[in-house]
Amino acid sequence: MDRTRLTYVTTVAVGVGTAVFFIWWWWNRKQKPQPPSKWRKVGELSDLIVYPVKSLGAIRMTEMECTALGLKSGWLRDRTLLVIDLEGRFLTARQLPKMINVSPSISGSVLTFRAPGMMSMSVDLAQIRGKSFRVAVWGQAVPARDCGEEVARWLSRFILQEDTGLRLVYYPLDRSVKSVRQRNHKIFPLEEEGDLGAYPDETSFSLINETSIADLNSRLDEPVTPQQFRMNFVVKGATAYEEDKWDWMKIGNVIMRNVRPCTRCIMTTIDPETGTKHSNAEPLKTLKNYRQVTDPQIRPAVGDSPVMGIHLALRGPCGMVRLGDPIYVGIPEEEAPPLVSPS
Predict the structure, then answer these.
(1) 188-209 burial, b for 16+ CB within 10 Å, e for fewer?
(2) How far apart are CA 255 and CA 206, in angstroms?
(3) Residue 332: is the preceding peptide bond cis (ω within 30°)?
(4) Is the dihedral of CA 204, 237, 249, 188 positive or negative?
(5) pLDDT band at residue 182 under the 50/70/90 scheme
(6) What is the pLDDT at residue 5?
(7) How far is CA 42 from CA 274, 289, 327, 331, in A?
(8) Which of 71, 104, 263, 339 is most buried by a 10 A CB count?
């Protein structure tokens, strides 16, 4: 084959290959939902909260990075530590309300715990070694690495008043490996693999609306705070319960999507300051009176659990969020039927 003909054939092959690539790129882009081009402001970020250990106390921050695994600031990450029993099953304040009385703080890679009547206890997350193993979280096997004897004994003594019984484990990966349950995926199709974080019950991010809490408080004898719901983001300035219908969202410049409502359980009845359960199961009892899911497609998955707040998933690059950041929703929004019956 002469050089001219070879050049021609090569050029055609490259051209065809390029065309095929762009057709493939266009088709994939068309199939994958894209963020909207227009947005409207609905409020501002009024609180930013991270829970380094599932069911233990909170750390309030002024800024954090949103990553695929959840909120992050150096070694501080959301719900990447977990308390387990000696059989490898995860434990929460649902069974052991006293867990909420453990207050965490972090300096560099050193996480420190404090609790009433106890000397403080520190664990250096950078020094956690040993072989990874699996723990059971809502029926799924999730990677973990043990944090050592000292912190295990400290937690056991405070929470159980025993020398043994509890272990603290750390999530050793930078990505989520939990699978979306098939039943959930059929009902909440926007939830994807990779959205489920390390040890949270659902997705890597959650949001609650101050005005929705205010409406709830108007129905209660004893008011509650957003902290009682253990969410990452608190928004102010939005109208009550409008978050139910949000779809695409931005916090500052970080793009997220509302992938499912947040169902509420007995955890909401535990006072975040005292670690005690409300004697009349409030606010859960009141929420069940007016925040039940009525959508017949969703009701089988949530039962009689009321909803309050939303679960979010990262749908753009990682980025920083800060207190005071504007919160936007995409426009135009499709009108959706209400998830709950009117009050």
Answers:
(1) beebeebbbbbbbbbbbbbbbb
(2) 14
(3) yes
(4) positive
(5) low
(6) 60
(7) 33, 27, 6, 11
(8) 71
What's residue 193's pLDDT? 83
Contact, 44 vs 333, CB < 8 A?
Answer: no
Mean pLDDT of 38-50: 97
Does residue 29 carry a pLDDT above 50?
Answer: no
Take residue 31 and report the two structure tokens written for it: 């199939």
Integer Cα distance of 78 and 51 in angstroms: 5
Enter the pTM of the model. 0.86
Q: Which residues pair with 255 in a beta bridge?
A: 250
State phi, psi for 178 to the nearest 5 degrees.
-70, 145
Compute the distance between CA of residue 82 and CA of residue 197 in angstroms, rounded to an integer. 13
Q: Where is average pLDDT lowest: 46-60, 65-79, 171-185?
A: 171-185
Cα–Cα distance, 116 to 136 (Å, whole number) = 29
β-bridge partners, 45 = 235
Would you place residue 10 in the very low, low, confident or very high pLDDT band (cuts 50, 70, 90)?
A: low
Q: Look at residue 180 in the predicted model and tell me its pLDDT.
A: 77
CB atoms within 10 A of CB 49: 20
* Strand, helix or coil for residue 161: coil
| β-sheet bridge partners, residue 110 | 107, 124
**C-alpha 297 chain-centroid distance:** 23
50: helix, strand or coil: strand
